[in-house]
Structure formats: C-alpha cells, structure tokens
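Q&A log
Question type: sequence-to-structure
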Amino acid sequence: MTEETRSTCPYCGVGCGVIIETEANQIVGVKGDPDHPANWGKLCSKGATLHLTASENVTRQTRLLQPLRRFERSEVPKPVTWERALDTAADQFSQIIREHGPDAVGFYISGQLLTEDYYVFNKLAKGLIGTNNIDTNSRLCMSSAVAGYKATLGADAPPACYDDIDQAHCLFIVGSNAAFAHPILFRRIEDARKNNPAMKVIVADPRRTDTASIADLYLPLLPGSDVMLFHGLLHIMMWEGWINAAYIDAHTDGFDALKAMVRECTPEKVSEVCGLSKDDLFTAAKWFAKSEATLSLYCQGLNQSSSGTAKNATLVNLHLATGQIGKPGAGPFSLTGQPNAMGGREVGGLSNLLSAHRDLANTQHRAEVAKLWGVGDVPAKPGKSAVEMFQAAADGEIKALWIACTNPAQSMPDQATVRRALQRAEFVVVQEAFATAETCQYADLLLPATTWGEKEGTVTNSERRISRVRAAVPAAGEARQDWKIVVDFAHKLEAMGVGSEFRKTTSAATNNNADRNSALTPIALSPETAPSTTTLFPYPSPESIWTEHRESTRGRDLDITGLSYAKLEAQGPQQWPYPEGATEGKTRLYEDGIFPTPNGRARFAALPFIPLADPRENRYPFSLTTGRLRDQWHGMTRTGTLGRLFGHVAEPTVQLHPADMAERGWQDGDLVHLTSKRGSILVPTESSDSVAKNQAFMAMHWGAEYLSGCSSTGEPLAGVNALTTSAFCPTSKQPELKHAAIKVLKAELPWTLLGVAWLPEGQALSARRGLQALMKRFPFAACVPFGRERTGLLFRAAAHDAPNAALIAEIEALLLLNSAETLRYADRRLQQHRAVRLSSTGEGRKLEGFLLAGDTSAEVWLKALLQDELPADAYGRLLLMPGAKAPVAVKAKSKQVCTCFNVSEEAIQAQLTTSDGSDEQRMSRLQRDLKCGTKCGSCIPELRRLVKQSVPLIPA
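Response status: OK
Response body:
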C-alpha cells in the first residue's frame, strides 16, 4: 500500500511543496503538492526526480551510513560507534579550546540545513563554546542581499511575495537566470505574462540566458557594471522627472547625498562603462519608473560580487525613488538560492548575526540572546566569515573545523587555499549524508546525517513562508538528524566543562543587569523555553528547538509568536511576520510606508561604483562568469547520482563566443587551459552565442568529482573554483564567485581516451568512485553518468603520451571491460588500444561498453550505437578498427531538450519543419505531438527559442 507524506523540496529557495510516496519504508515516488502556495503542484526536472535520488541503490552506493574515523590522514576511514565518534570529537575540540581558546575552532554549515539544525549549531558555537566562528555557505549565496536590505530598508526582509509576479506591470530581472535557478517561479512568470500581454520584462545579464530569451528589453551589461547601471537609470529618472518626490519626502532619508553621487552618471558614461546603448537605458528607466507596478527579481549576479552590498542597495534605491514598493506587484525581491538560506538568517547562522535578525555587534542584542540562552554573555569578538575562516585554517590560526551539509572542497572560491586549510587543520569533522562529497576526503571524522525524506523540521522560502519538512522513511543506516548530532555533541562538551565559565556567571549577570536589561525587548520565557539548570540543550525534538527560536522573535521584525507546529500542520505553510494574536501572516511588507529603522524611514544608500576585484587585463583577457545548469544542483552530490539529469548537458565545457573560437581556429571539444591568478584547469570548449566576445561561461557545478586532472608537477587540479577569486564585498563578505579574469590557451594533449559502458544499477555509482580516484593520474579527465532506464558511465581523459598498461587495465576493469567476452585491439607503437563488450546472448547483440585509447575518432558513432542500444553484430571488425568511418545507419544523437520525455533537439526541429501557423500554434502542436514541455516545464524556454529560430512551413 502506498503512503503519502507532505514535505518540502530540498533544492532552491522557491520552497516547493512535495508529496512523498512510500511503500514498505522505501521512497517510490514524488509529486508536487497541489495545496502548497509556492508551487501549486508543479515541480521542476530536479524536484520531479527526487525519489530516484533516494532509491535503495543510490543510498547503498553513495550515502554515509555509519560513523567513520581516520586515525591517519592517508588511510581509509574505519567504522566506529556513535559513542566513540562523539567522544573523539569532544576530546579533540575541548583540548584545542583549552590550549588555544574558543576561537581556535570554527563551524561551517549550510543553507540546506533545517531551521532547527541551524539554531542549535548557532547556540553551540556562540552560547556554549564561546566563539563566533560559525558561518554558512549562505555567505556565498545571500549575505549581500542581507546587507543590502539592512542598509536601505532597515531589516533583512524581502518585502514582496510570489503573488506580486501576477500583479506586476513591469518585471526587472537582473543577475538571475531564473529559468534555470528557480524554474517553478519562472513558470509563474510565463503564466503572468500570458495573462497580461502588456507586461514589460527587462532582463539585465552579461549572458543571453534562457531567462533573457523572454525579455522585451535585454540589457547585456558588462560583468560587474551593475552599480553604474542602477545609478545611470536613477540619473535618467531624475532628469526626466520620473521619480516619486512625494514618496521620497514622506518615507525616506538620504536622497540628496545619492542625487549628488549619481549626477555624474550620465547616459554617455553609463553607456561606455556598461556596454549598453543610450536608447536602451532610457527605455529601461521609463518602464521601471512609469509602470503601474514594477517588481525586481535578482539573485547571485548581484550577490556574488566584491560590490555585492552596493549592487543590492542601489537597486533598492530605484524602488524607493519611484515609490515602487509596499504595493501589489512592486518591490525589490531577492530570490533565495538555497532551500533554507532564509531560515538560517532568521536564527543568526552567519558569523555577524544572532537569532531573530539581531546584530552581533549590538551590545543590547547580545544581552537579549544571552538572557534567552541562560548564559552570562555572548562573545563580542567578530567571528570569521566563510572565506576568512578557511584562510585562518590555512594559516594555522583555526585548528579544528566542523563542516555540516556543505561541500567547501567544491563550492568555495580559490580552491588551493581551501584545500590547504583542510589539510593543515588538526582535526576536521564532516557531518554529511553523502560519502561522495569531495570534502569527505579531508575528514578525520565522518558523521552520517539524515537527508531529504528522512528529516523533520521547518524551512523558510524566498517569500518568508515557513513550511514543514517531514520524514517519510526511517533514517538510512546509522544516520542521525543533524540537530540531534549537535545536541549529543554539546552534551559531551558540557560534561567536560566546556562553557562552564559562562554558565557560572549566568545567575549573577542576570541579577546584576536587571535594571540595565529592563529596557530590552521583553523575552517572556515559558517553561519549555526557560534556560535549563543542567544543560543549554534540553531538546527532545525539533519542535522544542523551534519553540525556543520562536520565542527569540518576539517583538522583532520577523515575529512568529503566533505560529506553532500545530498551526503549520492544520493550516499549511505560513508567512512571517505572524505575531501572537494574528490570524494570518503578512503577505507584503511596508505597505504603510513605515520601515524598521530608528525613525521609521527607509534610507537611500549613496554607494559608489567600484570596478571588478579581478579585472580583465592583457595577461588575462577573458571574463569568466559562472552559473547554473538547468537540471543540476550545487555540487551534484544528489542530482549527480542520476544519469538522466545529464541528458541536457552531458559533460563539462567552457562556453566561448563563436568569433573568439574562429579567430583561434578552435573547434567544439578542443581542450583548452583556463588560467587565472589562482589556478589552472583543462576543459573542452563549446561555441555559444549566449556569451559575448572576450567572455567565457562555465557551470558552477563542475567540481573535482566530475572534472579533474593533475599539473605537470603532479599537483591535483580541482574544478571551476580553482579559478575563482576569494576577494569579497567588505560589508557582506560575500566572495566574487561570479567573475574571474582568465586566459584561454589551447592544450596540446595528443593522446586521448574514452571509455563508455552500461553497468549494473547496483555497481555504477561505486564504479564511478573508482574512476574518480584515477582522474588525477591524467592532465585532464572527466567522469559523468548517463542513461535513463539503464545506468552508464563515461570516462574521458587526455595526456601527452599513453600511460602504462596497468592504468588502462584499471579503467577497463571498472567499466567491466575485463571479461573473457571482451574483444581487444592494441598497437603499442601507435599507442592505440581498443576494447569492446557486446551483450552475451540473443540475436542482434548490442554494444554494452567500449574503450578507445590513442584514437577516439570513432566516438561519434560508437557512443550512439551504445546509448541508443542499436544492434551491433553486423559491424564486426569496424568496432575495433582505428579510424573506422561511421556507418550510414548509425547517427550521433543530438542534445536532449526535454528531460521528462527524453525529446532531442533533432526531433523537435524535424517536427517544426512540418508545422505551420503562428509561434504559439506551433509551440502548442509541438507539445501535443512530442509531449515536451508538458510535465515539469523546465524545457519551455528552450522550446520557445527553437520555435522562434525555425522557419514555419507556411508563414502565419
């Protein structure tokens, strides 16, 4: 019998509701929750395949299922009991704290943790241990949005909501490829535009993304020039009289200083700096200012920058100057990157924050939290942000690191520094669900955590909506809830006396400060939230943690004292603020024009335009930008377990403009060195007119698990973040992950290897881990899965000369090409080697696997023969013959466009050549005949582009 459990998707910040289907304690299906207001039943290509990432096969091959310890860094980790693991962690941390002080340890956590997990981590570091060295990968994601909102509106609170998309008359999308990063929200944009054909859409992005394809006005601004663009738009608005003087006078401060700053940002200057036409600047300014309601949607293109705070704040300036805020369809709406980056901000997960949007630097705020927690004080010394923390570990200042639910050995910028930090730290704990994460290789202690489908708690999405996350199945193996691991560890530390000095002063501090604290925001402690006399962590359940967090919000901008687990169960997801006595949350903020600042007025931010931290120059003439793939998530520890999610983009590449490729005589697939001031990697090229000349694009997901190699000195090379800079915004401390100056040079690696094979489902992911271990033996190597109904692996490598036969034999064995049935050809003089394996029985035997070494030109047809599972018997010796031309009957398949129904670009174009009528009619017929775009909808922008590019049989 199939059972259903309502929960929330663990991917992006849209916060889609899902219904998990289970049978016999196994997840067997997932569907969108039709009652959840974030998605109303829709799911993207990632969300729709969640159940496949939780299958028994995936769990057995990829999950961390028991605590493991390395007694020596070079050895394979060995199983230990939970008791032994936590004792070891407590011993190591307490010793380092005693010898070097609490700031010698650091915690790096994640926007994919639940709010309850986040809260106890924050309390562990700041309340028990006494260090503010706790930061989160949300520092890499949303900290500039936090700083921008606080600098202008007074609090970290997105003022708009998803319903505003339906009511907007102008959408200004900047620094966001929502079509890939927030697909279900993009479906809402598409629907809103269909329902309101008069809506204007402006998209500003250096790259012509699928999001840009829907724009009425596309602004291909130069990387890093956003602040100049926003200042220039405000200059035009003031010059043309398009600002809202009444709103400025009634509700804001600081406009005169900003007006003086933008006076020099003339259309001529902005046009030059941003690379945009003056006509387009005037059009954008007019649509934004004169629209009945303008909504801005923005994400990492603004946030991940050394000017991230300025970019966010100067965009908010436009809304304040035009009064486009606090009304339906209007406002600056930051799209959250991770599923619970918002929840982490709510509980003070960043090193400069405390619970309920309190500031660590504020004496009163620290006293309030100390009173709630029952400690004498919260340390005042600023904690290390993410980049600073790993630099401090690399320098030997931080001796122990605890990393939870994130993969810094893939996702952090300047990987050379990050890996040096992980190697130098005396003790590294990795609390993780997936053993395949690159960071696990650096752990002294591995603690298995639960993941989606097994967790209990809450998350908050981009529109301030709190949703329940529910467990549908028991924890896999010995995995424990993240919050429970923290609480158990804290109890061990308490037993060792860690933090006792804070507890001893609690009573006296509370009494002595009674008069001084009387003016503080009242925190009425109920019995279940009153400080315990025996432990700071008296939590039997995630609900008990959430109840304490709720109390910390009383009287704050995000007050949720009117909410409870029971209300979330009965009424579904709710938005904050939701104070005690309220009957519903607040949909939209600042409708009364009153802001959470000392005088109730918003503040204009007069922040100057500052060029890129890593500008292009003669030695590094290309601008590298990074971004997302449509069907992948972050470091791909979850999505990377499914071959079908590699159908749209099969392998890592760097995209370059066709003119840059032609000038250098490069072809698609040619290997090039990408080199920045921090490192160098090898990657194949791909021609794309989505990037401008002298620019390059590479997806953020490609880490060392998928793309690797070694330098000429044998030093391992990591993925794309070997290139990115750790320079960060001085206010938000968010690094400039979106841009790096690089040079691109052709690689001369004449010897190539390609291995492709179908593998038994229960062995494929384990085989991939074996191949990943071999990747560093080559200057270039890539390893990716493929397949839908079956599971396959592709291993690609290149070198100056053929490696020894033993290495090739290892690759063959992992691809199951070492059986007696395998056919081989070898020519040592020409450094060529071939192996093919056919299915062993039946008529029309099919190709099950092959390896080409030295000459891989037959890839074009052998890969098609294997992946399309075509009869191969008839090709006989051609299968082993170097340089054999592709048989007429075998044609390489074009790229997949629709993941849900496996529809290729070739099939779509063939259908369009026989279709007539308008673009909408042809699109409708395409969806009817091929089904593409009719399930998750993630491919719809690409389908529309193909329709627009094609020539109808009979023009409309």
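Response note: The chain has six domains: 3-62, 68-141+341-575, 143-334, 612-747, 749-893, 896-949.
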